């Protein structure tokens, strides 16, 4: 039996029910930990909810800077996108939450941790691999795999029985579930389960529709230093401030919506609606600055390992030796990824209109039709003949 538990607590219906269930089942102190990763106003009532349920130790920590600097930015250096469309907004948040949860467990003398991820999803894997990577001896409790509450109505009945406050929009059938942080918002379930039916407009919270987006384009310049964005329009910003600013641009211009059917690690397909406004802009800009600063071999090697890197994060293996090894290779390519990218943002589009770098490999004299430069066009004949040998046999 656990002696003390640290629960990853959002303050919503699920984790509030889990909190009470843990207290009843294990008859031990439960500590709550809530990470502020930029999810917004939903954090406001968290402390009061936890304390009303008898929690004596409540941790609410602003981890936005750590999140963007040490998790989002390293991932974006790799141009990581899962299955061609998903920017891994939920997946990249879980290792940070897990790591800090284990640290808090050590601080308060807890021998167990718990999470609110369901037994059908990816997050149970991500949380638990993160726990074990940071403390192989920790006891992990996953209520959704243990209790008998198997429906939303049963959760609501349990909450009402124990006088747990329920938000009005959670009564009855909730239309869909969401996860939000500074990088993205994801929505899935209920009205979104049929992949043929278009997502209702009310699902979207981080982006305007194309119809309602700004009529006139915005032109911005994003500056990079060694692969990381450091400034917008020559104004230096901290990582989380920069992503927040790009989110605002993306919101205004309807940028970053994706409707995806993805392959979950646990073996099923899932339809989700994702909004990644700032991340979509940042990804386009990063590829643009790489286009003039990376050697072809470096660029193509990065593109070859990117799907493996993205899948590694998606599957909850952020702390694995292979992710760390790939990160070292990726980071070694970013030494000269420094310079500026000029973008035009309009009606859901991110359009690259300029790029420059003190380390640019772009040689105007080589590509220009108006200069001879160091390139003798006659040399191409031998190159083509040698290359064609294997096609002639």
Radius of gyration over all CA atoms, rounded? 24 Å
Question: What is the average per-residue confidence, as pLDDT, rounded to a whole number?
Answer: 93
Tell me the total number of β-strands.
Answer: 14
Helix count? Answer: 12
Number of domains: 2
CATH class of the largest domain: Alpha Beta
Q: Specify the helix fraction band.
A: 25-40%
Fourth-tier CATH superfamily name of the largest domain:
HUPs
Descriptive notes:
- The chain is elongated, with a radius of gyration of 24 Å.
- The mean pLDDT is 93.
- The longest helix is centred in the C-terminal third of the chain and has 19 residues, at 296-314.
- 38% of the residues are buried.
- The protein is of the alpha/beta class.
- It has twelve helices and 14 strands.
- Strand 9 and strand 10 (235-236) form a beta hairpin.
